[in-house]
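Appendix B, record 7
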Amino acid sequence: MADPMDTDPADRDPREDALARRSAAPTLSPWLILAGAGLLAAGAFVVSALL
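Structure tokens (predicted):
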């Protein structure tokens, strides 16, 4: 169960701290990776069309 917001750090569940550390840096969304690959493909298409 999650600790309340104003819980003293000494009273917090260590598992909650581990989850907070892991979620501090969000991972890249698969949709963001696919969109980036699509933009690179579109850029390569434009460059090849101009050459």
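Remarks on this record: DSSP finds two helices and no strands in the chain. The CA atoms of residues 29 and 35 lie 10 Å apart.
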